[in-house]
Amino acid sequence: MTFPFTLDAPPRFAGPLPQAADVVIIGGGVIGVMTALYLAQAGERVVLVEKGRIAAEQSSRNWGWVRQQGRDPAELPIMMESMRLWQGLAQRLGEGLGFRQTGVMYLAESDDDLAGHERWLAIARGHGLDTRMLSRAGVEAMLGTAAAWKGALFTPSDARAEPVVAVPMLAGLAVSEGAVLVEHCAARALDLAAGRVAGVVTESGTIRTGRVLVAAGAWSRLFLGAHGLALPQLAVLASVAATEPMPQIFPGAAADGQFAFRRRADGGYSLAPGAEHDFFIGPDAFRSFGKYLSVLKKDFRSTHFRPAAPKGYPDAWGTPRRWGGESPFESCRILNPAPNMATIGRVQESFARAFPGLGRPRLKTVWAGMIDTMPDVVPVVDHAASIPGLTIATGMSGHGFGIGPGMGRLLADLMCGRAPGHDLARFRLSRFSDGSKIDLGPSL
User: Fold this and answer.
1) Which residues, other chains included, contact 75 with Cβ-Cβ below 8 Å and sequence gap of 6+?
2) What are the structural domains of the chain?
3) 145-156 per-position pLDDT tens digit
4) Where are the beta strands (DSSP E) in 204-276?
5) FRET label pair with 164: which of 52, 118, 186, 217, CA 20 to 30 Å apart?
6) Could you read off the pLDDT of 119-144 as tens digits, one per residue?
7) Cα separations (Å) of 426 from 16, 100, 134, 300?
8) What is the rounded distance in angstroms from the CA atom of residue 171 to the CA atom of residue 174?
9) Region 333-354: what's the mean pLDDT?
């Protein structure tokens, strides 16, 4: 059972690589793709370069949730805009996106869970969201069982989509609007002149440009660090499985602390641990230890600490932090870590206990992805003050798929010198260097 993205087939997006562009985007995940789309629609000459394949890393490996529920208050208005954009994209591209507004449910296992859900409900009401609390009886009516759950937080307007097909479809839309996408083309470095962006050096040549967006997911810290930018970004491994087709429990997505599930278009479910993940300890982890203390205290029991691999990983001990010619991005075209099968086994058992009538689900595919995360679990979306012409959008912390359209739209405006329409102060890069306290916020 393997993940479907490989380098065996010819690239779908092959350029050619132009000599110059108004904007160059580094990274072919959902954030880069959506920014390319909106820049192209604004009449900008935009080129996106991707070292491997469009959406081959976390943008296709996520749970497929398009959720407003549980967002950090600074993310929520952007996510609500994203939901409107998703609706328009689904009307334009059709059912292939897999976009369905079938609701998201956070299941409460304890009184503390219920209290946390009630606190976030106040945020939802302040934004006019349709979130509501469900009683134990309400959960049973929707899921056919209440298991050990005391209630739930439920947002009917939240949605799901199929990441592995949706992001490449959106990339095709960007190309139809005039964007140039080039797969199998790693960005090696920024070309700087008098300290500001003058171009991007790729393995296939240099593109002249005065504006660059780094949206490279788990690789962003490595790329930016080679230019002297300190970004305290790390990555955690999340394991996911797709089941064989099975009877429908609930058409949307739900999670508790043990497992999460989302109905798939193929009649199965995507299953994942509710909180469990793996963290690989490499040199960047030691450098950023102090900034991650707050989130470590919160997630310590649900984190499996493992030594980083010697190579083939952004924070591997053997990954060079400086290079002259060929870059680490060419050595690892697709970050394809092995899933934690013990974790997936526990998810199967938790599912079977919750839904004894269905039993242990049979799996069709199992995979893992590396989630680019920040110490406060919200992204960096900002211009780089030390390198004029450079913009950063990374550290989506597992929230990127759903919020991608809204982030792409505001980034396009930000890079064109227009007001982004949202308060981005929470996402500034300088929060990690100006003495600000790490704020985990009230997100769930």
Assistant:
1) 378, 399, 403, 443
2) 23-103+157-432 (3.50.50.60)
3) 878 899 999 999
4) 205-208, 212-214, 234-243, 253-255, 259-263, 269-273
5) 186
6) 999 999 999 999 999 999 999 999 99
7) 38, 30, 31, 25
8) 5
9) 96
Pairing of strands 269-273, 234-243: antiparallel
What are the residues facing 261 on neighbouring strands? 254, 271
pLDDT reported for residue 443? 64
Q: Write out the two tokens for 343.
A: 């974790």
Q: Where are the beta strands (DSSP E) in 336-395?
A: 363-373, 380-383, 390-394
Q: Which residue has the tokens 């049979």?
A: 362
Of the candidates 208, 262, 198, 275, the one whose C-alpha atom is nearest the C-alpha of residue 236 is: 275
b/e code 13-28 from CB counts within 10 Å (16+ = b): bebebeeebbbbbbbb
| pLDDT tens profile 95-116 | 999 999 999 999 999 999 999 9
Residue 308's contacts (CB-CB under 8 Å, 6 or more residues apart) are 280, 281, 282, 285, 315, 316, 317
Q: Are 25 and 364 in contact (CB under 8 A)?
A: no
pLDDT tens, position by position, 377-388: 999 999 999 999
- The count of other CB atoms within 10 Å of the CB of residue 284 is 23
Output the six-digit token pair for 61: 């490996």
Q: Is the pLDDT of residue 1 over 50?
A: no
Task: For residues 398 and 58, give the distance between their C-alpha atoms in angstroms, rounded to a whole number.
Answer: 8
Distance, CA of 40 to CA of 93 (rounded, Å): 17
Closest Cα partner for 381 from 230, 261, 215? 215
- CB-neighbour burial class of residue 362 (10 A; exposed 0-12, middle 13-18, buried 19+): exposed
Measured in Å, how far apart are the chain's first and last C-alpha atoms?
A: 32
Token pair belonging to 212? 């660059």
Please list the residues that pair with 193 across neighbouring strands: 196
Looking up tokens 């300290």 gives: 195
Nearest to 381 by CA among 349, 408, 354: 408
Q: Which amino acid is at 213?
A: L
Contact 199, 218 (CB under 8 A): no
pLDDT at 2: 54
Whole-angstrom distance, CA of residue 160 vs CA of residue 99: 6
